[in-house]
Write a structure and sequence with these properties.
It is a single chain. The chain has a domain of 156 residues: YVTN repeat-like/Quinoprotein amine dehydrogenase (Methylamine Dehydrogenase, Chain H, 7 Propeller). The chain is globular, with a radius of gyration of 22 Å. Strand 8 and strand 9 form a beta hairpin. The chain contains four helices and 26 strands. It is mainly beta. 33% of the residues are buried. The strands form seven sheets. Strands 1, 2, 3, 4 and 5 form a five-stranded mixed beta sheet that branches. Strands 14, 15, 16, 19 and 20 form a five-stranded antiparallel beta sheet that branches. Strands 6-7-8-9 form a four-stranded antiparallel beta sheet, with no helix packed on it. Helix content is 8%, strand content 38%. The termini are far apart.
Length: 342
């Protein structure tokens, strides 16, 4: 037997952690279940950062790569990512490249994703990948429940592409009127503190209708961040809601197929934080928090009256923990949530 040398087999923990980016590379993640399979993202190995889209048959257990990011689409270029996507990935602690997220229609027939800021649509039965038209690098592409529409954000504006008429191009359905206004993305507090990274949702209970967040940071204090490594560069401007200062004004709007926009209003002074949104066929739940985060209002959207209807209110002597995935409605319109009762 040949002796095993330490130099050939030993790799220090810090080097392993750096090489695998915290042991994140190569592991399957972002699972989505359909009636007959599970979709997930995985890179080729623990040394490869480029995520590809995979599927596993729930009956046979056979795996298949639907979209190989290195061969099926142009080379991934993270330098082309918009600033909003870079910030989003940083807040999500995203360490990979390639495909990092995807969206699937209700039938599990079609998915959309973005790579290098380019939106793609993929037929999950044939693995045919089609690049979608967009006016610039996109953030957070989403497909509607019926698979007929794809939405994404470009330069703080929301665009929609018809999956049945891709050649018609992208239509802008909501755009900012000034530099401190944003449509379709999550505001700073939501993404940084409440783990909500989305800002637009297709409503499964109403065809061709989007629920879109709009936020205005005009009254949020402006900070200037300098780069010590680049002393000749101008400091970057950031709107930052430090403790006790003004928050962004957050709103929700329904945008229908005819491009009509209707605001879903609530008392933003009492509940400045939009904690979560949970669309479902049985109804869309909206979770609102007060500034002290010890009072939560759980509401359902009445899409006929274009308003919120509160169905539950909870308080806590300290604070209320926001848990990803809840509250939401099940198929029988029963409220599901996690309550701290210890």
């Amino acid at each position: 037997m040949n002796p095993v040398t330490t130099e050939a087999t030993f790799e220090s923990y810090p080097r392993q952690r750096a090489r695998t980016r915290g042991f994140q590379l190569g592991r399957p993640r972002n699972f989505h279940l359909t009636s007959d399979r599970a979709l997930f993202i995985r890179s080729a190995s623990g040394n490869d950062s480029a995520g590809s889209l995979w599927t596993i048959d729930l009956t046979s257990g056979q795996e298949h790569c639907i979209v190989d990011v290195r061969n099926d689409i142009p080379a991934d270029n993270t330098d082309g990512l918009p600033a909003a996507e870079r910030a989003r990935r940083e807040r999500m602690r995203e360490v990979a490249s390639g495909i990092t997220a995807f969206s699937v229609d209700a039938a599990g027939a079609t998915a959309v994703f973005a790579a290098s800021g380019i939106p793609y649509l993929v037929d999950l039965s044939t693995a045919q990948v089609t690049a979608l038209p967009a006016p610039g690098p996109v953030v957070d592409p989403r497909i509607s429940s019926n698979g007929e529409g794809v939405s994404f954000v470009v330069n703080r504006a929301v665009y929609v592409v018809s999956a049945n008429d891709i050649a018609a191009g992208a239509t802008c359905i909501a755009k900012p009127s000034h530099e401190d206004e944003t449509w379709g993305l999550s505001d700073f507090v939501a993404s940084e503190e409440l783990s909500r990274f989305r800002g637009h949702w297709w409503l499964p209970e109403v065809d061709d209708t989007l629920l879109v967040e709009r936020f205005d940071e005009t009254d949020v204090p402006q900070w200037w961040i300098a780069d010590a490594a680049q002393p000749a560069s101008e400091p970057a401007s950031r709107r930052y809601p430090s403790a006790g200062s003004n928050n962004a004004l957050v709103e929700l709007w329904l945008i229908r197929a005819d491009l009509t926009q209707v605001q879903i209003s609530w008392d933003t002074n009492a509940f400045p934080y939009l904690a979560s949104v949970a669309p479902a066929k049985s109804g869309t739940i909206v979770e609102l928090l007060n500034r002290s985060q010890n009072l939560v209002s759980i509401c359902v959207i009445d899409v006929d009256k274009n308003e919120l209807r509160e169905i539950q209110r909870r308080t806590d002597t300290a604070w209320i923990d926001v848990m990803p995935g809840v509250p939401c409605l099940d198929e029988e319109s029963q409220l599901l949530e996690i309550v701290n009762d210890v």
